[in-house]
Design brief:
By secondary structure, the protein is α/β, with parallel strands linked by helices. 35% of the residues lie in helices and 16% in strands. It contains eleven helices and eleven strands. The chain has a six-stranded parallel sheet with strand order 2-1-3-4-5-6, with helices on both faces. Helix 1 links the parallel strand 1 and strand 2. Helix 8 runs parallel beside helix 9. It is globular and about 60 Å long. It starts with a strand and ends with a helix.
Length: 294
Amino acid sequence: MYKGSIYIETMGCQMNVADTERAATRLRAAGYELTTSAESANVVLINSCSVRARAEQKVFSRVGEIRHAREKGEPRFGVMGCVAQLEGEAIFEQTPAIRIVVGPGGVERIPDLIERVKEGERHVIDLDGRSDRDTWEVSSVERHSEYVAFLPIIEGCNKFCSYCIVPYSRGREKSRPAADILREARRLHEAGFPEIQLIGQNVNSYRPASDAGLEEFKGATPFSRLLRAVASIGVPRIKFTTSFPRDFHPDIVAAIDEYENLCNWVHLPVQSGSDRILKLMRRCHNSCEYLGRI
């Protein structure tokens, strides 16, 4: 049953793009139509990013721009993502036009939140974490590209660098079960995607509760074993981002050498070449150690 049209605008990183894809999958399954026009949509969702300065102001400014551009009718506005998680109910006070606030953990529940607003609730908020019943499945129709598929393997961060908001907006590191990742990688391969990108705040910090699916693959770390397992499925190109220098071990390079489809493409953030600044950043390595990784 058709329930209306929804426009989703995504700010920020690959994880936000992946969350938008999941939200779109759930919304379409619930009877909503996804549209590319904010000017005509019944519901407008802003998937926000908190990494840049004045992140919340960018969200509020964008809501104002959309309201000003519409010729008739006001949509139901919602804010998803990291700004929603960090700002919470303060968003309602700042911009009353926003009706829904939902953090990264509530992606699966967005259709229900919209229904609550449609039934008369003025403001609806969900800052809870992911449920154990949540899935990461994304319809091929909702993928941002027909050539590249993002495959989240880990969410959150335990590093607590002095400048970074991620541990507070995304929570502590939580790795997906290897068996789930491999099932999704096989589906993507069968769907014809030529490239998969394994994504997460720190992919090489991957530590699943169970190694199910990785036992037969050699490697000192679970991440290197996961790389080999995904590579063996046969996807033509596999990349991963982003890596934390402290957790970038030689066995990762060995895996890349062993499999032609593990691309010679590594994102290893420098952040600074100054040991003093790296220490103030709490990056847990110095410039010499970083160059050793290179």
